[in-house]
Design goal:
22% strand; globular; 185 residues; three-stranded antiparallel sheet
Length: 185
């Protein structure tokens, strides 16, 4: 017979998302990531995101992340597809980024750092497929994953020359992961 005496002694799990002490960041307590409340180009004024979001080609987005990392001495990067999709809330109205956590968030395509990989099976003895694979890999080098925060769609074949929104992510600091007030009920 199982007893539940130990469960009464365990602490309640932390909410998945909390605000940083200055409320400028959303902290994913499970993944231990810190997300700015505002898209790149916008700034947090203490109550909302203001300004206009910037758009970047993939190369510009990667350079921007590297520049911000160097300037702030923090490991900023483009998020992986699954990390960005984790922020999307199907239950919020409208669905997408939770407006309480990400106020005035632009709702459109965002870059991710996930590489586009063509997993098509090839027969190396069929020369037509060998030739095809070289052009596919060249095409894959020109594409990356992107996530649409309005439709919740993720695609692996967004052309890297397109100008898309950018929401960088970095590891959360110990201070940000400490006990905080929950941002969601």
């Amino acid at each position: 017979m199982l007893t539940h005496t130990a469960s009464a002694q365990t602490a309640a799990p932390l909410p998945a998302f909390q605000l940083s002490p200055d409320a400028s960041m959303v902290i994913d307590t499970r993944a231990k990531l810190a997300w700015p409340r505002c898209a790149e180009g916008m700034s947090w004024n203490g109550k909302a995101c203001v300004g206009s979001a910037e758009v970047f080609s993939y190369k510009q987005a990667m350079s921007h992340a590297a520049e911000r990392s160097k300037a702030e001495n923090l490991r900023w990067r483009l998020p992986r597809v699954n990390e960005l999709k984790r922020l999307l809330d199907r239950s919020s109205k409208p669905q997408g980024l939770n407006p309480e956590l990400f106020p005035n968030a632009p709702r459109d395509w965002h870059w991710t750092g996930t590489a586009a990989v063509n997993a098509q099976r090839l027969n190396t003895y069929n020369y037509a497929q060998v030739d095809k694979s070289s052009s596919i890999s060249g095409l894959s080098a020109q594409q990356a994953w992107a996530v649409n925060t309005e439709t919740l769609q993720a695609v692996p074949d967004m052309g890297k020359g397109n100008a898309l929104l950018l929401r960088l992510v970095r590891p959360a600091t110990e201070a940000e992961l400490g006990p905080q007030t929950s941002a969601t009920p």
